[in-house]
Amino acid sequence: MVMGSLLQHLFITLSCLLLLQTLETSANQTPKSYVVYMGSSISSIGEFAELDHLRLLSTIIPSDESERLSLTHSYSHAFKGFTVMLTEKEASVLSAHNDVISIFPDPILQLHTTRSWDFLASESGTGSDHRSPPVSSDIIIGIIDTGIWPELPSFDDTSIGKIPSRWRGVCMEGFDFKKSNCNRKLIGARYYDIQDDWMESKSVRNNTHRPGPKGSPRDTVGHGTHTASTAAGTAVANASYFGLATGTARGGSPSSRLAIYNACTLSGCSGGTILKAMDDAIRDGVDIISISIGMSSIFQSDFLSDPIAIGALHADKMGVMVVCSGGNDGPDPATVVNTAPWIFTVAASSIDRAFVSNVVLGDGRVFKGSAINFSNFTRLKTYPIAIGGQVAAPSTPFSEASNCYPGSLDVKKVAGKIIVCTDTDPMVSRRRKKLVAEFARAKGMILIDGFEKDSPFDSGTFPFTDVRDNDGAQILKYINSTKNPTATILPTVDVKGIRPAPVVAFFSFRGPGGITETILKPDITAPGVSILAAIMPENETGTIPPGNKPSKFGLRTGTSMACPHVSGAAAFLKSLHPGWTPSMIKSALMTTATISNNVGMPIPSSSNAFASPHEMGAGEINPSRALHPGLVYETTKTDYLYFLCFYGYKEKIIQAITSTNFSCPSGSSEDLISGLNYPSISIASLNGHQTVTRTVTNVGPKNSTYIAKIASPIGLVVTVLPEKLVFVKGYPRASFSVTFLNKSATKGYKFGSVLWSDGLHFVRTVFAVNVV
């Protein structure tokens, strides 16, 4: 019996292994979308490039599967490559081809203002707002996102001059978008076969021809419209979100032009499509590319397997600045994405405005809540209130009902009551909890949430609010100690002049960089909490207060909203300093950034501690000060190539990227990255001492003398040589070295700064040093 049982067990095990092997083999033979990157583009253009790519593809696609001999995308302007359906084996074979630098599965990237610009101006300390040229400028911002809703007043071109002659883009028509939807403000719009791409990522094409595009540049999500208007929206007076956040809505550079690249859906973005949009944007003639999109911080790729990093490297080479959000995976450390040094990486912070929806208990006590709701509740009437666990569905654990899990509430017990939900399980979002309560016919919902309160949730007309843990404990105590507890949730009011502000947002990613810690990320911080900007009009039931039409403006939160603030600020600088390179603009914004809040203290993080450069980079953007930075760091194309050498890429690969005979320095190592001419300093491992050098360019008065001042933590000795930089006419550049010596510092990251000043300009360079 024992032997028979063993044989039976062995037979089952072998059968399972064979089945798994069969399934694995089958999966490996199923084509899926791959991005093939082939370096710099120097000769092949358009159809010729596509023919070259098809010839290469024909060497690995079996002759009996010729229907697969087609490309999803072909890249040919700023760089070479294509996106294509391949099996794992075919991808492996193709990766060995001499012309292929990298090949990787097409990744799925995620989508990561009335008061905000006024707040930035008030924080500048200059007493004046920053203004773009009065009529129009020729700066073009390319927005790669979910499209545009062109009819909104934020994209009106009444006071804008003719389209720049250098513009080479198009205004593509779609089933709901006409060429006439473009104008002198919205000068270009493209879309991609997004739906087809997503279908192809899941199955093999079974037809012999590629379907034609069936999309449109029109935004059906709202994300792209919001980011576009934040960057460069025309000023619109009396803007609001159903009476909240009233004021003049405008972008950071209202005089700039917009070019739209609809490359994403609500579900995310194909990396191959993002790469195609970047190639098109560079060819079209944009000056700045704004991308509020990124890969997951959990599955980060190296720099030559990341579509945004690849596209941005070639964009910078051609003088186009790329600004990206860093992700919403905070507050855990090492969650920043889009960390390549040639990308301007943006964190998110709050402004001095809050959206308050208070809870009034039956005993008269009032607790401050945070939300955006347009309920019709008043103080005059209260409703029964219960904890989710007290109205649980049959056989549902108390903890699940308290967290308002889907299906956890008993409709008969819930109907007509305000339900209190907790947030001890982050897997169930606020939106889902709200829908659970609403579906169970709750009168309203109070969420006890110690963190996300700083990021108000929009519940439409459903009464909802977030309260802090301490206030939540008092509400629970009231419910448990009262025979017939009641409460009400008041509709939202906006409160200005909140202090302290700014605060680094709880959700905003944190450094250090997970791929390399030798470049300090994030670079900068900008407003990203409850930003009012143009939005796709929504007609969904429950989102519009009775008697109102769909709003032309909406409030959104995320590093996605912070990114276009920086894109707009960069366009503003570019319009007044047309000769500045992307690295000069980046440096100007970083070295002049604000590091104190509106009560004169250092900017705090969401935990109320002072924010470190791993949370806010150099500080919060200050466009007015950045106009006259005094000195700038010019990070050259050679610096970026050295970065690739030091990071470990082979010389042959870098030559293919640049189409040059570039040679890596001897003795390359990742530690040397810290010495590149970047506007901040990061040392991943300090054991003893280390010296880095920097070179600055004088863009202020030709005859200037700058003196260094050091702010360093206890135990870390920082010296600068020379301590004085003297500039005279004809000699605009000067170099200096910074030496870090661990004398008695404890282990871990230490932060500080080197400040150069001539009495009028203050050029601040932050540093992060990991003592080991």
UniProtKB/TrEMBL annotation:
Assigned keywords, A-Z: Hydrolase, Protease, Serine protease, Signal
UniProt-annotated catalytic positions: D145, H223, S560
Span of domain Inhibitor I9: 33-112
One of the protein's GO biological processes: proteolysis
Ranges for domain Subtilisin-like protease fibronectin type-III: 676-769
Spans annotated as Disordered: 203-226
GO MF, one annotated term: serine-type endopeptidase activity
Cross-referenced Pfam families: fn3_6, Inhibitor_I9, Peptidase_S8
Family: Belongs to the peptidase S8 family.
Name of this protein: Uncharacterized protein
Natural source organism: Kingdonia uniflora
Classification of source organism: Eukaryota, Viridiplantae, Streptophyta, Embryophyta, Tracheophyta
